[in-house]
Write a structure and sequence with these properties.
This protein has a domain at 27-56 and 83-99 and 173-258 and 267-313: 3-Layer(aba) Sandwich (Rossmann fold), CATH 3.40.50.300. Helix content is 33%, strand content 23%. It starts with a strand and ends in an 11-residue tail after the last strand. It is built from eleven helices and twelve strands. It is of the alpha/beta class. Helix 3 (107-119) crosses helix 4. The strands form two sheets. It has an eight-stranded mixed sheet with strand order 6-7-8-3-9-10-12-11, sandwiched between helices. Strands 2-1-4-5 form a four-stranded antiparallel sheet. The structure holds adenosine-5'-triphosphate and magnesium ion (MG). Adenosine-5'-triphosphate (ATP) binds next to strand 1 and helix 1.
């Protein structure tokens, strides 16, 4: 059985202009020790879909579907069971690291209180563990850092402190929303190595949301591509990035500069804009921007179905099918 099985996840948010469907039926599974990547343009519902798992959605939001974790549906947990799972098993690094640190408390206090609440350690032991965690995320001079306040750190350092705080409880599943976006390349590589080590040594599973397909290919085992609140394609990362089958995935990759380019190669921007959840086109939501769309694309939402041994695809046309 998978560590986490998400089935038909839907999130609707009530706004002053009516209810909008933000996440529109998402299915995936995360295995133990797996890094599961989530990519897709801004506004495609990546963050909302993971906030739903922890019941951290904004007011006015409602969910349907299931998210099975250890035989229980995360979407329906409440009270103590929910706090237990959130504190000990599931952890989340937020897209904006500033929101997860208290500005008026020293780093040492924030981290050690986290450790004490969850592990019942003594104050001293908790501080020692906090220093250890800071060292793990490569904060220089961890002992000194314990006495510092968040504003004394750079954005990248704060991001690493936030990650340290989440790892304090040794979660089984870490949800990381753009955890390395604010970091420079060397620090980013350090965080990715850390996640990779935790995955290998302690079987940590990670749901990693990132725009950066370079980061994705270096660490994620599998990747799902989100478009307008749905998964349009998923599969093993290396395979999917080398032979994308959905026209949207292909367009995303074409829009990336290649590292070996001399800068003169033309980047192919995807024409048009992603639709707002309020004005999602009928059929395949990508069809107005897609050169391959057919009549079916305009009226029927393509289901996500297995293609080949390891891939899933939601496209009526499948113009890049492997020749058989
Ligand atoms: N509180 C809210 N009320 C109404 N709509 C919301 C709310 N929060 C998010 N949305 C809408 O939900 C959609 C998905 O947002 P989400 O934050 O999940 O996108 P994302 O894929 O994480 O994008 P990004 O890559 O920019 O982080 C967006 O269209 C956004 O405007
Ligand atoms: Mg987001």
């Amino acid at each position: 059985m998978s560590l986490l099985e998400v089935e038909e996840l839907r999130v609707k948010i009530r706004t002053d202009r009516g209810e909008v469907t933000i996440v529109d039926g998402v299915d995936y599974a995360v295995e133990e020790g797996q890094v599961f990547g989530v990519a897709g343009e801004s506004g495609s519902g990546k963050t909302i879909s993971v906030l739903a798992l922890l019941q951290l959605l904004p007011r006015g939001a409602s969910t349907s579907g299931r998210a099975l974790y250890g035989g229980r549906d995360l979407l329906r947990l409440s009270g103590r069971a929910l706090r237990r799972v959130r504190g000990r098993e599931l952890a989340m690094v937020f897209q904006d690291p500033l929101t997860s640190l208290h500005p008026m408390m020293t780093i040492g206090r924030q981290l050690s209180e986290h450790v004490r609440i969850h592990e019942g350690a003594s104050k001293r032991a908790a501080l020692a563990r906090a220093a250890e965690l800071l060292a793990e995320v490569r904060i220089p001079d961890p002992e000194r850092a314990l006495h510092a306040f968040p504003h004394q750190f750079s954005g990248g350092m704060r991001q690493r402190v936030a990650i340290a705080g989440e790892l304090a409880t040794r979660p089984k599943l870490l949800i990381a929303d753009e955890p390395t976006t604010a970091l420079d390349v060397t620090v980013q590589a350090g965080i990715l190595r850390l996640l990779d080590r935790l995955r290998r040594e302690s079987g940590l599973s990670v749901i990693l949301i990132t725009h950066d397909l370079g980061v994705m290919s270096s660490i994620a085992d599998d990747v799902s591509i989100f478009y307008a609140g749905r998964i349009v394609e998923s599969g093993p990362t290396k395979e999917l990035l080398s032979t994308p089958r959905h026209p949207y995935t292909r367009a995303l990759l074409d829009a990336l500069p290649h590292p070996e380019d001399d800068g003169r190669a033309e980047l192919l921007a995807i024409p048009g804009l992603p639709p707002s959840p309020r004005r999602r086109p009928a059929g395949c939501a990508f069809h107005p921007r897609c050169a391959y769309a057919n009549d079916a694309s305009r009226v029927q939402t393509p289901p996500l179905v297995t293609v080949g041994a390891t891939r899933l695809l939601a496209c009526h046309v499948d113009p890049f099918a492997a020749p058989s």
